[in-house]
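The following block was generated as part of the benchmark described in Methods. Ligand: guanosine-5'-triphosphate.
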Amino acid sequence: MVYKREFIVKGGCGGDGCVSFRREKRAPFGGPDGGDGGGGGNVVIKADSNLADLKLLGRKKEFAAEKGGRGESSRKRGKKGEDLVISVPVGTMIFTRPKSGQETPLADLRTPWQEVVAAKGGRGGLGNARFATSVNQAPETAGKGQPGEERYIVLEVKLITDICIIGAPSSGKSTLLSAISRARPEIADYPFTTREPILGVMLGDKRDFIVAEIPSLVAGAHSGKGLGNDFLRHVERTRLLIYLLDGSSPTLVDDLGTLDKEIALYKDLAHKPKMVTVNKMDLPAVQARLPQIKEHFTRLDVPVFYISALSGRGVLELTRKAMEMVEEAGPGEETIAQSQIAIFRPKPRK
Ligand SMILES: Nc1nc2c(ncn2[C@@H]2O[C@H](COP(=O)(O)OP(=O)(O)OP(=O)(O)O)[C@@H](O)[C@H]2O)c(=O)[nH]1
Ligand SMILES: [Mg+2]
């Protein structure tokens, strides 16, 4: 998974203006009619809710939009250069890094299809038709197209989701995600089946909810055990955490402590709404332990659910409560301060 990338973006150069004179049978000295050059294309960065990382961008070091076309005779304007659109996941933060000086935030793409112009295309040059005056009725000059903007861009992804499911290996995260959304992650009884975050959409009455399965967390993840804890970056901007526990685990209570500890070692997320879910309640052995399990968890001050992701039992109640908690949480995710985001203003003319 690729969550960071740096590259140069270049707006397309504007097309040159044209020098041309009208030459017709009835108007042999018809005056200048050279058209303006077309504007260069912009480089646009756009949030796509189908993406979970930046790997589609490859290792390319430079993204350039198309040049504008040259102006033509008969005052025909040159073709506008095509914009170049770079697709990134929702939750991509964009910074610019000047040659000297500090990195500054440019945008935080928080909603699907939100976009920002990362480099503007240059303006097209004026055609000679524009230079005609009463003193110079046959100007031989036309403007040159201006170069496009050029910037050094740094992207960092912190996915924005409503709900993140975290848990130990094989606790049933993928099974739960497929029960509540149309995502179809691989499900298997060996650990670390899911190696990258998987996104799913859960349909609500009023709106849809983005749910992510985060790859397994094990004790020591902060020091690189298992798949490490790099994936926790995505937990930072979620609105609700579901701790999914394997009901058949002999160390059920400690499993919750492990998850909590690994998260605390990553970042202080104490304020984030959480719920605990004990899975695999369809297994007779787990059913038999239920009173014992409940005794441990009634002391928690977060909602606790007992479900079977496999049979679907208890899943509806769980999702109802989850949606309710997300709505209550409001948009409290960590973000780049709005005031820091640069706003594009046209440069003053020289
Ligand atoms: N009996 C029972 N088995 C379940 C339940 N949920 C998941 N399983 C099984 O547990 C195993 C692991 O399920 P996954 O959904 O792949 O678990 P995971 O947490 O995504 O695992 P990783 O991605 O490897 O961390 C599979 O064999 C599932 O069939 C459940 O509610 N009941
Ligand atoms: Mg999985």
